[in-house]
């Protein structure tokens, strides 16, 4: 029986070149190829059937691993995408700023509006403070003697600019500025004319006509090269050396008549004295004219057509006229220099000055 089986298996192996056993181990017989012996083929079919679920499991694992591997790179990308989306806002505002670049100027103007309004408020406050300082300085200049004013401005030179800034703003509202009238008059004078501008401020006459005329400009302080700082009751000019002397709104201080006497000293015989003063300062215009005539001036004319100021024209009389009064005035000046002037004399001088010209005190606003 054994031999029959062996011969039978050999014959079957010959009829099937792949062999029954090789098929079972190599490729696994399909259900069609499982029709072989009871023992060998039966065991082969059982092994292949057992191997198939393992391979299916392995295939499923491999597929799951592939799926997981495909999903792993995606899952970290998903949290990164919102991060990238979070980082993208920086370019978005850049794009928005570029898009809004055309509208940027108005936004800048709107932002710059608050500081500009603040600066305007500050400027208003500065103007008010400057106005208050101007009124205070102005009152000092009209109620003190000129030597005290010189001392004040020498100690605080910035006060000179504060005063003249305020004075300029006051005169700008007038229909006409008397200094311009004097400049137009002096333009017609010959180049040999010598002019003394007493209380010149910033020296507008000299700045305008210094190439045409010889002009000496004096005031309490020197804001520029045209102006000499001094007390105009005593200017550094020789006797009878000037053709025209001008007081343009500058008869200030309780001793303003000392300025008039100084003008008489420096003027040549026949020299001109031209005065412009605020009309509200004159209690009595005729009395003022008479007082200047007593010094030695001859009254020529006055012009009160302007509602803000009056213009006066005087001429210096001969040197012999009123010599006794002039000598008395010089004695009074020497007493002042020696410091022997009494308080009563100062008080009488102040009262006399106010009787001729009232202080020009600006009202507080």
| SSE topology string | HHHHHHHHEHEEEHEHEEHH
The N- to C-terminal Cα distance equals 147 Å
- The pLDDT mean sits at 76
Structural class: alpha/beta
Largest sheet: 7 strands, mixed
Are there runs of 5+ residues with pLDDT below 50, and where? Answer: 14-29, 31-44, 95-114, 320-325
Q: Write down the CATH class of the largest domain.
A: Alpha Beta
The CATH architecture designation of the largest domain is 3-Layer(aba) Sandwich
Q: Given the C-alpha coordinates, what overall shape results?
A: rod-shaped
- Helical coverage, percent range: 55-70%
Percentage of residues in strands: 5-15%
Stated plainly, the CATH topology of the largest domain is called: Rossmann fold
Number of domains: 2
Q: Total number of helical segments?
A: 13
Radius of gyration: 57 Å
Describe the structure.
This protein is α/β, with parallel strands linked by helices and 365 residues long. The chain folds into 2 domains: 2-74, no CATH class; 127-356, 3-Layer(aba) Sandwich (Rossmann fold), CATH 3.40.50.150. It has helices spanning 2-15, 20-26, 40-87, 91-99, 104-143, 146-155, 158-172, 178-187, 204-209, 256-266, 285-295, 323-338, 343-356, and strands spanning 194-198, 214-219, 227-229, 242-248, 267-278, 297-303, 309-316. The chain has a 7-stranded mixed β-sheet, sandwiched between helices. A hairpin with a 5-residue loop joins strand 6 (297-303) and strand 7 (309-316). The longest helix is centred in the first third of the chain and has 48 residues, at 40-87. The radius of gyration is 57 Å and the shape is rod-shaped.
């Amino acid at each position: 029986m054994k031999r029959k089986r062996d011969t039978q298996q050999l014959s079957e192996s010959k009829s099937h070149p792949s062999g029954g056993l090789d098929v079972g181990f190599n490729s696994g017989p399909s259900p069609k190829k499982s029709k072989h012996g009871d023992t060998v083929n039966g065991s082969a079919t059982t092994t292949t059937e057992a191997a198939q679920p393992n391979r299916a499991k392995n295939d499923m694992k491999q597929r799951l691993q592939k799926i997981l591997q495909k999903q792993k790179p995606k899952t970290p990308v998903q949290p990164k995408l919102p991060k990238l989306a979070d980082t993208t806002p920086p370019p978005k505002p850049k794009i928005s700023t570029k898009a809004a670049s055309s509208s940027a100027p108005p936004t800048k103007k709107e932002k710059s509006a608050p500081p500009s309004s603040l600066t305007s408020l500050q400027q208003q406050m500065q103007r008010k403070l400057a106005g208050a300082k101007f009124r205070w300085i102005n009152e000092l200049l009209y109620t003190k003697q000129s030597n005290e004013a010189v001392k004040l401005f020498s100690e605080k030179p910035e006060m000179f600019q504060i005063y003249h800034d305020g004075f300029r703003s006051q005169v700008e509202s007038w229909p006409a500025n008397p200094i311009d009238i004097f400049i137009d008059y002096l333009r017609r004078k010959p180049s040999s004319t010598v002019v003394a501008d007493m209380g010149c401020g910033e020296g507008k006459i000299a700045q305008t006509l210094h190439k045409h005329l010889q002009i000496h400009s004096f005031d309490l302080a020197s804001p520029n090269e045209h102006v000499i700082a001094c007390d105009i009751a005593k200017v550094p000019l020789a006797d009878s050396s000037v053709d025209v002397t001008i007081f343009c709104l500058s008869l200030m201080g309780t001793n303003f008549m000392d300025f008039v006497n100084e003008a008489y000293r420096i003027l040549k015989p026949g020299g001109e004295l031209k005065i412009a003063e605020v009309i509200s300062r004159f209690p009595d215009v005729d009395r003022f004219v008479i007082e200047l005539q007593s010094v030695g001036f001859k009254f020529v004319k006055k012009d009160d057509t302007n509602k803000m100021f009056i213009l006066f024209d005087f001429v210096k009389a001969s040197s012999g006229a009123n010599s006794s009064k002039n000598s008395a005035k010089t004695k009074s000046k020497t007493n002042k220099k020696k410091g022997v002037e009494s308080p009563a004399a100062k008080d009488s001088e102040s009262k006399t000055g106010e009787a001729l010209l009232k202080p020009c005190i600006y009202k507080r606003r």
